Amino acid sequence: MAGRLQVARTDDFTGGLNLRADAFQLGGNESPDLLNVDIDPRGGFSMRRGIQRWNTAAVGAIAAASFTPKRLWVWETATPQVLVAANSKIFYSTAGTFTDTTITTTAAHGASFAAWSGATSAVYVSSGSGSVGNKWSGSAKTALTASGAAQWQTSFASPIGTHMPKADHCATHQSRMWVASTNEDATAFPDRVRWSHPLFPESWRQEDYIDIPEGGSGITALVSFGETLLVFKKRSVHAIYGFDNDTWSKVQLTGKLGTVSPQTVAVTEGMVYFFCWPDGLFGFDGQGFHDLFMSMRPLIQLGSVTDASITNSHVAVLNRRIWVSLPAGGTSTANFSLVLDPTLGDGGAWVKFQLAGNVAGVTAGADLTLASGQRLSLACHPTEPYVLQVDVQDNQTGTLANFDSYYTTRWQDTGNVSNLKMWRRPDLIVKQAFVATTITLSVFHNWDETTVKRSTSVVLGVAAPAGVWAAVGAEPDGVLGWGEFSWGAAASGSEYAHGGNLGLARAVQLKFAGPGGKAWGVDSVTYKFNPRKIRS
User: Fold this and answer.
1) What is the spatial distance between Cα 475 and Cα 483, in angstroms, rounded to a whole number?
2) Is the separation of the CB atoms in 166 and 130 below 8 Å?
3) Were both Cys, which of 48, 81, 211, 536 would link to 75 (CB 3.0–4.6 Å)?
4) How many angstroms separate the Cα of 416 from the Cα of each of 8, 11, 420, 531?
């Protein structure tokens, strides 16, 4: 009824970021623009958690801005180690200080690692088809003899060898060591997959290989997933099934999808995630392929991300979320990370993260579980020689640097674009603040996303000055984050806030921007409005 005060409530934001939909197609729980916020499965949004340096000394004493990380891999052994392939070398660490393994790499995308457990546990390293393989004991390397003429082991009865084919990729699968994209006797076999003797990763027969010429030239990644060995090319994916020399068989799973490098593949217990250029992120669950990039695809379609530097992209699984780091705007390294939480909604929801300064995302990464059981999510900075711990809110020291965080709501027109409405003071349920915190609120009218019609503030944790929005309830606290921002510990409670009118418009859109260095979040927005009569 015209004139009577009405309300429209929004408290579900689990749709996350959607770059594909326009103002009229966005779901009620989606956002057209957000940065450095997390989505709560219960519906609200809040500033993301912090990121800090794990190592205090530069990896390999590499100069600032000269770091070129390719792979970060975790060896889950009695004393877990982190191996980083960067700047044509491999470095290792158990507690944040990295040491050179003295293994060098010639592979364009860094080394490939495969753990082997047995009487003696080790990591086997493929350093590129132009380099011999190595065995890493945890403290020392052993260079392995390149397999080739007069260097094959034919006997299963007495398989004695310290060999490994030169290759770009390696993986442990079905009690064997596997390699792909090999170089044998100075001849490149970019489509070849080889396997070792069963239970003997350093013994190889000449005839134990499968060539996969289908789907283009060049194997780009090799992944063990359950009982299947997945072989990736740029525009195809193949599976090797079986359990011994008599049963190995290859099947092409798709001739349309693939991945550009081993950097863009990550594995969980139930899904293999891979970035396919120019299609985006896909998942393979053993039964079929799932398109996970529909809402993000305009980044590619509109040219924000191009093929000029796509080989510097990375996919990592950190704390059960999938991080896709991409170079955009003509940059040569990843300058933002898109993060997919597969637990939100039907197909998961995306958010966008950048490090302080809004110039970089994280790159190669993996979860590290310490002997104590504590799990750390680690990723490399794309240019600075440091491994970063993400999703932390501990009391740490360092030179602090704040980062931007904001969330833009969808347009709210109450389902009626014809009515002008006088938008009153919205009611907000916000995350409880223990320190003085100010959230800036920008108001847009009538689907114009460039002109701020009104701007005001919500002050939390202290009595608000006259003329600004206020919320009640504060307890003193405050915790410092890494070298990125001053982190306020998240509270379990909420506060009620309200404030000034939003103005006369057919539709309104709100942008919540958080303060630098203080935790903030919003659980619910209730719009109040008086509809005007519709004029013919």
Assistant:
1) 25
2) yes
3) 81
4) 12, 20, 9, 10
Which helix (H) or strand (E) segment is 301 a member of? helix 298-301
Torsion, CA 156, CA 160, CA 162, CA 163, rounded to 10: -30
**Mean pLDDT score of the chain, rounded to an integer?**
90
Give the pLDDT confidence of 234-249 residue by residue, as tens digits. 999 999 999 999 999 9
Query: What is the DSSP track for 135-192?
Result: EE-SS-EEEPEEP-TT-----SSS----EE-EEEEEEEETTEEEEEEEEETTEEEEEE
Q: What is the assigned CATH class of domain 6-33+404-531?
A: mainly beta
Measure the CA–CA gap between 37 and 391, rounded to whole angstroms. Answer: 12
Query: What is the maximum span of the chain, computed from C-alpha positions, in angstroms?
Result: 93
* Cα gap 110→506, rounded to integer Å: 55
pLDDT at 393: 62
How many CB atoms lie under 10 A from the CB of residue 20? 17
For the purposes of burial, counting CB atoms within 10 Å of the CB of 140, is it exposed (0-12), middle (13-18) or buried (19 or more)?
Answer: exposed
Q: Length of the chain, please? A: 536
Chain centroid to Cα 33, Å, comes to: 18
Unique residue bearing structure tokens 């504590």: 374
**Left if phi > 0, otherwise alpha if psi is -120 to 50, otherwise beta: which for 72?**
beta
Residue-wise pLDDT tens digits, 446-461: 999 999 999 988 888 7
Q: Are the C-beta atoms of residues 394 and 509 closer than 8 Å to each other?
A: no
Domain residue ranges in the chain: 6-33+404-531
For residue 165, list its beta bridge partners.
Answer: none
Bridge-based pairing of strands 163-164 and 145-146 is: parallel
Contact (Cβ atoms closer than 8 angstroms) between residue 457 and residue 512: no
Question: Exposure pattern of 325-339 as b/e (b: 16+ CB <10 Å)?
Answer: bbbbeebebbbbbbb
Tokens coding 67: 């770091």
Instruction: Please give the torsion angle defined by the CA atoms of residues 337, 82, 392 and 296, in that order, rounded to the nearest 10 degrees.
Output: 20
